[in-house]
Amino acid sequence: MTYERTAFWVSPKDVITRLKPIEPLFCFSPLVLQDTAVMFMQNFPGLVTYAVKANDSVQVLQALVACGIDAFDVASPDEIDTVREICPSARLHYHNPVRAPHEVQAGLAAGVASWSVDDATGLAQIMSAPKSTEIAVRFCIPHVGGAYDFGEKFGATPERAAELLKQAAEAGFVPSLTFHPGTECHDFKAWDRYIKTAAKIAKNANVRLKTLNIGGGFPAKVGRDGAELLKFINVIKAQIQASFGEGAPNLVCEPGRAMVSQSYDAVLQVKAIRETGDMIWNDGIYGSLAEWRDMTSPNLTDLEFLSPQGELRVGATTDRTVFGPTCDSLDKLPVQIQVPSSVDVGDYVIARGMGAYAQVLCTAFNGYGAHRVVICQNVGK
Ligand SMILES: Cc1ncc(COP(=O)(O)O)c(C=O)c1O
User: Fold this and answer.
1) Which mean pLDDT values do the consecutive 10-residue runs of the chain (381 residues) have?
2) What angle do helix axes 58-66 and 77-86 make, rounded to 10 degrees?
3) Does the CB atom of residue 255 touch ligand 1 within 6 A?
4) What's the CA-to-centroid distance between 255 and ligand 1, angstroms?
5) Last residue of some domain: 237, 260, 283?
6) Contacts of 92 (CB under 8 A, 6+ apart)
């Protein structure tokens, strides 16, 4: 991935009209990212950590650290190293609950402050950690609201979580619970139910929770809209009060998607229009659109089509089948795209809100993919 430090563009439209890129690229606005981070820190009643997996680029991490984010959810020793290089004093939460022995050693050596666990093996692996360490038992309940079910892979049942929490507390660690409602979760009820269940787990374990980590999962668009984020936070605060009252634990959140999505747009180009009317774009599901294959509702409304001169293509639309540039027929967008009929070969596609899980999932399959990031003052609509 190459970053351009010298070029500072005003907007993706500016990039299109002046650079006329023939390769797909990302436009990143550190200012939009910092606005989002500040909005989270000002409104969330607890510690805001950033889930590095959503976008681990140095520029993103530097922008976050510069505006005050100093705690990170990391999923691997590699992410630990990346964060520590930028912020040596960062607080690290190793909340990928399954770790190989060498990964545990790396986390212990790095002084991880919080470990998530969801079974006895995971807990046994970290018994030698200092007692000031937090053990966050990850639990899951039936899936509500997220784009897909995070409970399929991780999370103890509430009954098992109570046993693990008790063991962690008895061993002298800082007792905590954690959950993840599923990414791009629009349903407040998910947090409501998880928080209620957390209180029951703590009660059954007879443990006073020190912290409760309410996960990531916030939808991408709350990142640009404090009022929308507040709706989630108000539900969370009300349920914490109802479930825990005076003994409320300290709260932690770990947004990935909602933190970084809105700070990136992707700029792609229409490479060909076939006799059939099908379109080939210069990037697809092996590149920046990788997540679209798995999300039930990619942000298709956030696509804009521009001529190379920067004129917005508007008017009647046609439903098009869209393929990416590779030789592979799986490289096809999962739904038809409404494309203005005036769009022609060489026109540009701006996909908004592409900061999370796009750059990190981009491959170089067939020699394609968005491997360039330009810095813009502003992105988004
Ligand atoms: C433990 C943990 N925390 C936070 C996140 C970030 O989730 P999101 O990007 O939906 O906010 C993830 C995503 O996989 C995760 O596994």
Assistant:
1) 69 96 97 96 97 98 97 98 97 97 98 97 96 97 74 90 98 97 91 96 98 96 84 95 95 97 97 97 96 71 92 95 96 93 97 95 97 95 82
2) 50
3) yes
4) 6
5) 260
6) 71, 72, 74, 80, 83, 84, 107, 110, 111, 112, 113, 114
Mutate to test the pocket of ligand 1, among 48, 49, 73 (most ligand atoms within 8 A of CB): 73
If one counts the domains in the chain, the total is: 2
Atom index in ligand 1 nearest the CA of residue 54 equals: 9
Which CATH number goes with the domain that contains 139? 3.20.20.10
Same domain, 41 and 24: no
Residues 6+ apart with CB under 8 A from 242: 196
Give the CA angle between residues 44, 11, 338 to the nearest 5°. Answer: 90
Residue 381 lies in a domain: no
Residue 223 Cβ contacting ligand 1 at under 6 Å: no
